[in-house]
Amino acid sequence: MKVILRDPILADGNLQRKSILALKWLISSYSTLRPASLPVAPHPLRFPGGTNVYICTEYKQAGAIFRGHADYRSMGPWYDWVMLRWAREDNQRYAGDADCQAAYGDDEATTLEHLYAPGKILGFVSEESANCDEETELASKGEMMAVASTCDFSHSRDSVFSTKWQQSYVYHADNCKAPNIQLVDVNSIVRHCLMVPHDASHSSYHEIWCKELWGNEFNDCS
Asked: What are the CA-CA distances from residue 154 to residues 31, 96, 97, 165, 174 (Å)?
């Protein structure tokens, strides 16, 4: 999957290289460190050669706060689910189902040019320390990215106001699989979404639609 990047310079930029290092570290750390030991802003993660990347647990966008914290206020993990806007590649065959309302929150023109799939935020990376209590300019400059465990594009209508999604996986040797973790431009976050796991395996989820959409399903005047 390819994430939409508003600033094309990011593809070869310095932050992208730093963020990839941070992403690899995050993936390995989540399996080897206790949650409370993960570093968060304002303390930078230092790589060989003097490279610094800040690991942030919160990000504020248009008044909405998005969190990805392994032990929020020492009360357990808090990982927000969000709907993500992905760039549609030329050979991309997946087509969104308008009846599933995945693109809710975007206008029609934007919807036609992109694909949509949810992701669970694990944290944020930035090359500058950011204060989530204030609106930050880091996102507009392409200097803040989210680390997200993503779902596949394919989805299906589940109930009157829910959609079923499948966890996206990457496969390794001996057919071992692990959740697909991506670096995502925070500008591609569309909205929060409520995801309920289908069972204990967390291999599929039920997205409960925004309550603003419920009334239309019970009062179809067409």
From this structure: 28, 8, 9, 7, 25
Q: What is the C-alpha separation between 38 and 21, in angstroms, rounded?
A: 15
pLDDT digits (tens, 9 = 90+) for 54-88: 778 888 888 899 999 888 888 989 999 999 999 88
Q: List the chain domain ranges.
A: 8-151+179-193
Per DSSP bridges, beta strands 64-69 and 81-87 are: unpaired
Start-to-end Cα distance in the chain: 36
- Two structure tokens written together for 121: 């935020």
Q: Pull the structure tokens for residue 107.
A: 């206008």
> Computed from CA positions of residues 194, 200, 205, 207, in that sequence, does the dihedral angle turn out positive or negative?
negative
List residues bridging with 121 in a β-sheet.
148
How many Cα neighbours within 13 Å face the side chain of 166?
8
